Structure formats: C-alpha cells, structure tokens
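Sample 1 of the test manifest.
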Amino acid sequence: AQKVTQAQTEISVVEKEDVTLDCVYETRDTTYYLFWYKQPPSGELVFLIRRNSFDEQNEISGRYSWNFQKSTSSFNFTITASQVVDSAVYFCALSEADAGGTSYGKLTFGQGTILTVHP
Amino acid sequence: DVKVTQSSRYLVKRTGEKVFLECVQDMDHENMFWYRQDPGLGLRLIYFSYDVKMKEKGDIPEGYSVSREKKERFSLILESASTNQTSMYLCASRLAGGRADTQYFGPGTRLTVL
C-alpha cells in the first residue's frame, strides 16, 4: 500500500527566512505522480505542483522550488524568502499509475505541515 | 477556471440524522472524489466515482454512501450521523485518464454532529 509521511507537524519562521517542508513516500509502483497542495485559512486546497516518477528534474517557480529524489523517496518543498501570505497547511500527496502513465486517480495524502510565517 | 462548489460551508446535525453533502463541478470532469480531513491525519478518501452511476469505496467508506446520477453532481450521504463523523469534508474532481491527473477541490463543508 502506498503511504506519504510529512514528519513536520508544525513549522514557525520569521518573514524572509527560507523554509523546507519534507515529504517521504512509499509505493510499490514504478510509475506514479507526486503533488503538493496548499490549504490557506479559507479551507480550499490549491494545487501547486505535479511531478511524475520519471522526471527527477528539480523545479523552481518564483520563490517555490521542489527537490525530487527517487533514491530517498523524497519530494521536498522549499519556500525562499517566506512571506506572511505563505502561512497555510501544506500537503504532499501520491497517486499511483499504470505502466503507460495513466493515473488511477486516487490520492494518498500526508498528514500535512502547518506553516506559520511571522512578520 | 475549474469550479467545484459544495452546498454548505458549515453544517450542524444531530446524532441519527440523515445528512446529505452536495458537490457540483462545472468542468465536465468524469472523476469525482469525497475526502474527510482530520487534524494529524491529513485527507482520507471516502468514496470516488469514475463516471455517472459508478462508485467505488475509498479507504474509509464505513458509515457513508454516495450518489452520482448526473456527471456534474456527486453527493455524500451519512445514513445515520454519528459524533465521530464530525469533520471537514472536501470534494474534488478531475479529468479521467491520461496524465492530466490534477484534482481540483471545493471549499469544504465543516460538519458538526451533536
């Protein structure tokens, strides 16, 4: 069975600090997708990124960057120069897929990390 | 923009009541999902539907049922609400198959069962 672990329950930083959110996953499949979602206080989950298991290239989007390492089954998320608006709950999730890359659709989520950025 | 709406943001019910949570999406997505979110447990899948009139159990289906009579609407039913079903319920939808796997979520319904 697949499993996603976010060991950091809560993180508190001061504005402009860099912060890394850890995500470790377990799956028997060779083809899968990994995701990060953000849940601000309003409650709605906002999609941030999707990465497939064949693409280990790191990605940067503005202040956000993601480090995918299959060797350690990790998909970590870094926010550079954090801002108060980054305060939210962040979820890592996994979706298994068939050999052709078609996802089965079901997401397995980690427990979530509560990030608080203080001014 | 994908829009997923849920019928209520907050709901208070009594033990034993039958409860309906409604979810509607406007992007013609085949797949729809119901999750519940509890502190320290993340989101857990209750039921999902690949298409109209199709449904499959997720990881925690006990005490719940679902209905998908129209493509845009997916209902979660608590046949006899219990206090341990107090939770945040989130609905999501996605296009079927392929690699367009991103699920889009509604704002959630916070259900309290007294």
